[in-house]
Specification:
The chain has 111 residues and is mainly α. Helices cover 75% and strands 0% of the residues. The protein has one domain (3-106). It has helices at 3-11, 16-32, 37-54, 61-83, 87-102. α2 (16-32) runs antiparallel to α3, α3 runs antiparallel to α4 (61-83) and α4 runs antiparallel to α5.
């Protein structure tokens, strides 16, 4: 359901512009998929967070890989919950992702 966003990001090179395009794609889907609006908005926020963090910063291959793994983990969490029919699973996934995004953005380079 949301994996296509990660696939597009990977195919576009995992750079800042790729995350920006991914975020815009997620946001554009909200109008056509109102039942997925909360998940898509969180994906948009996660992509924009990457853009804001690295837009004017050098990005090593190691850091780009780490960020991609974290981003695809977010998408995977939402994708698994939304592939079922349980509203409780969806809500749990939304809360997990929202809490993760609310935490300060730190990568291995920040530690």
């Amino acid at each position: 359901m949301f994996e296509s966003l990660a696939k597009g990001l990977n195919e576009a090179g995992r750079g800042v512009r790729a995350y920006d395009a991914c975020g815009r794609a997620a946001r554009m889907r909200i109008a056509d998929e109102p039942e997925n609006a909360a998940a898509l908005l969180l994906i948009f926020h996660a992509a924009q967070r990457f853009v804001e963090s690295y837009d004017d910063q050098p990005l090593s291959v190691e850091l780009a890989t780490e960020e991609y793994i974290q981003f695809t983990d977010i998408i995977g969490t939402l994708d698994r919950a939304y592939s079922g029919n349980s509203a409780e699973e969806k809500l749990d996934a939304l809360n997990i992702v929202a809490a993760r995004l609310a935490a300060p953005h730190k990568s291995k380079a920040d530690r």
